[in-house]
């Protein structure tokens, strides 16, 4: 137990956080530590321990943990409370199926409204992704890239749902990079996607996005099948 307490303290630090920032600070610290692997699957994340580390009440801690549970980064286990969830699981395949439905529709709505600044912003994220090697930062930039292309969809509820699902993508990217020993991913799919969006080729862009997401889903499915066979 002492070793686990030391792990949380070492990974997250120990500092007094202003009450009005406590939830967001704790959520972001935990989220980054989970995504980059500093807090491995199965690590217990206890409310009182976090409250003590950051010098706050348990209320903002509880809300931060709820947010992370909603993002599938934590799961609640009987007799243990909140623990770091496995890096990849069966629900990841379903996440990609849902992403295909949501994101192709958002892209279809958004492309006719995208302007030169939107395209330039998306290309800027690609340039950053080409040189970035930190898993958590790759996930963040990937999310920003996709949202730049969907941003002009007039359906704001659709965009909110997509952002929730893109949190799952960040977990997949860490799984993909870690298990394959890669420092970064090729940006060929992203380049082709933004080129099609720039040229207002809606149907082509939608097909490219669907193939991009389905390839990721197949990689997860193959991995899970191999795991269950061993």
Description:
Residues 20-87 form the HTH gntR-type domain. It comes from Pseudomonas farsensis. Keywords: DNA-binding, Transcription, Transcription regulation. The chain has 230 residues and is mainly α. It folds into 2 domains: 2-84, Arc Repressor Mutant, subunit A; 90-229, GntR ligand-binding domain-like (Four Helix Bundle (Hemerythrin (Met), subunit A), Up-down Bundle). Helices cover 71% and strands 3% of the residues. It has 10 helices and 2 strands. The protein has a two-stranded antiparallel ribbon with strand order 1-2. A hairpin with a 3-residue loop joins β1 and β2. It is globular and about 55 Å long. The model has no long low-confidence stretch (mean pLDDT 86).
Poorly predicted regions: none
What level of helicity do the residues show? over 70%
State the major sheet.
2 strands, antiparallel
The radius of gyration is: 19 Å
CATH superfamily of the largest domain: GntR ligand-binding domain-like
Q: What is the terminal-to-terminal distance?
A: 31 Å
Number of strands: 2
Domain HTH gntR-type: 20-87
Pfam families: FCD, GntR
Keywords: DNA-binding, Transcription, Transcription regulation
Protein name: GntR family transcriptional regulator
Salient structural properties:
single chain, 230 residues, mainly alpha, Arc Repressor Mutant, subunit A, Four Helix Bundle (Hemerythrin (Met), subunit A), two-stranded antiparallel ribbon, 10 helices, 2 strands, globular, GntR_C, transcription regulation, transcription, WH_DNA-bd_sf, GntR family transcriptional regulator
